[in-house]
C-alpha cells in the first residue's frame, strides 16, 4: 500500500515554474528520500501535498485521499517539520507545544516531556531566547507529539549540531519502527544515505530518477581512479557509460556504468602505477545526475 501517491503534479507561479509533472509514490512504513539542491522544487512539492498551496495540475493523495479535497482531515495524521520554523516569540516552549497539542485528539502530554528530553530542549525557555537550532528542536517535538502516521521532513537538520542530528535520526528510526511512514527531503545527501532505502532525485522542478539507493551505489556505477606512468589523453576514455571524467596530471578519475571489460581493454599498452575501483558515494552519483549535457 502506498501512503503517498503523486501523479504529474505541476505548480506554476504565473509564468514561473515551481514543479512540473512530478510523480512518485511512498510505500507504507518506508523512509523515502527526496533529494535535490535548494530551489529544485522539494518544498513546493511538499506544500502542495499538504494543500498549503494548490497545484496548477496533476493529483496527489495521502492515505488514498485527495490532498486538496480532504486536506483538513488528512493533516490530523501528519507530522510536518518545515525548513523554516516561526513562532510567537512571547510564549514559552511548553506553551507553544501545549497549544499545538490542542489541535489533536487524545495527545499524551507525557510524550512532550519525553521528546523534549531526547532532543535536550528546555521547555521553560521563551521562544525569543532560543537559538535557531533550538527553535528547530521545538519544530521536531511539535511535529511528533501526536504520534503521526506520516512524518514529512523538509530540510530537518538545519541548525542542529552533529550530536543532535544523530539523536534526531535515532528518533525518526524509532517512529518508523513503530509504523510511521517518513518523507525525508534534504539537499544533504549523507543524511538521506543514513536513513532511506529509496530516493527521488529532483532537478529544475522535475523528477530525474526514482531508485533504490543500494542499486544506485552497488549495481549501476563504479568509481575509477587510474594513475598512469605518463600523461594520457583522456579522450581515450570518452566512450558511452563514462561520466564525471577529470584528470590530474597522470591520474584519471571517472564514474562508469557498463561492462568493466571495456575499461580494461582501453588500458592495453599503457603502463599503470596504480588503479582503484570502488563504490561511489551517493554525493558523486547525485552530481552525475546534475551534469549538464554536452
TrEMBL record:
SMART domains: AAA. InterPro entries: AAA+_ATPase (IPR003593), ABC_transporter-like_ATP-bd (IPR003439), ABC_transporter-like_CS (IPR017871), ABC_transporter_ATP-binding (IPR050763), P-loop_NTPase (IPR027417). Belongs to the ABC transporter superfamily. Coiled coil: none annotated. This is ABC transporter. Keywords: ATP-binding, Nucleotide-binding, Transport. It comes from the Bacteria. GO terms for molecular function: ATP binding; ATP hydrolysis activity. The keyword Protein transport does not apply. Residues 4-229 form the ABC transporter domain.
Amino acid at each position: 500500500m502506498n501512503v503517498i501517491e503523486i501523479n504529474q503534479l505541476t505548480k506554476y507561479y504565473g509564468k514561473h515554474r515551481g514543479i512540473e509533472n512530478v510523480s512518485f509514490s511512498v510505500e507504507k512504513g518506508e523512509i523515502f528520500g527526496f533529494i535535490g539542491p535548494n530551489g529544485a522544487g522539494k518544498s513546493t512539492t511538499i506544500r502542495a501535498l499538504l494543500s498549503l498551496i494548490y497545484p496548477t495540475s496533476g493529483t496527489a493523495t495521502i492515505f488514498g485521499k485527495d490532498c486538496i479535497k480532504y486536506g483538513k482531515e488528512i493533516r490530523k495524521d501528519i507530522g510536518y517539520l518545515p525548513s523554516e520554523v516561526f513562532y510567537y516569540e512571547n510564549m514559552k516552549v511548553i506553551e507553544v507545544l501545549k497549544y499545538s497539542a490542542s489541535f489533536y485528539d487524545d495527545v499524551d502530554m507525557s510524550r512532550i516531556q519525553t521528546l523534549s528530553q531526547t532532543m535536550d530542549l528546555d521547555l521553560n525557555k521563551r521562544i525569543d531566547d532560543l537559538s535557531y537550532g533550538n527553535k528547530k528542536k521545538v519544530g521536531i517535538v511539535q511535529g511528533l507529539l501526536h504520534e503521526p502516521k506520516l512524518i514529512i521532513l523538509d530540510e530537518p537538520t538545519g541548525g542542529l549540531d552533529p550530536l543532535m542530528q544523530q539523536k534526531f535520526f535515532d528518533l525518526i528510526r524509532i517512529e518508523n519502527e513503530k509504523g510511521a511512514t517518513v518523507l525525508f527531503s534534504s539537499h544533504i545527501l549523507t543524511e538521506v544515505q543514513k536513513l532511506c532505502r529509496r530516493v527521488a532525485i529532483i532537478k529544475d522542478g522535475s523528477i530525474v530518477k526514482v531508485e533504490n539507493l543500494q542499486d544506485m551505489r552497488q549495481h549501476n556505477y563504479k568509481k575509477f581512479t587510474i594513475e598512469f606512468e605518463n600523461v594520457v589523453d583522456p579522450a581515450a576514455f570518452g566512450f558511452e557509460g563514462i561520466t564525471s571524467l577529470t584528470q590530474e596530471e597522470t591520474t584519471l578519475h571517472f564514474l562508469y556504468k557498463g561492462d568493466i571489460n571495456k575499461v580494461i581493454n582501453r588500458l592495453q599498452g599503457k603502463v599503470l602505477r596504480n588503479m582503484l575501483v570502488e563504490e561511489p558515494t551517493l554525493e558523486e552519483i547525485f552530481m552525475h545526475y546534475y551534469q549538464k549535457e554536452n
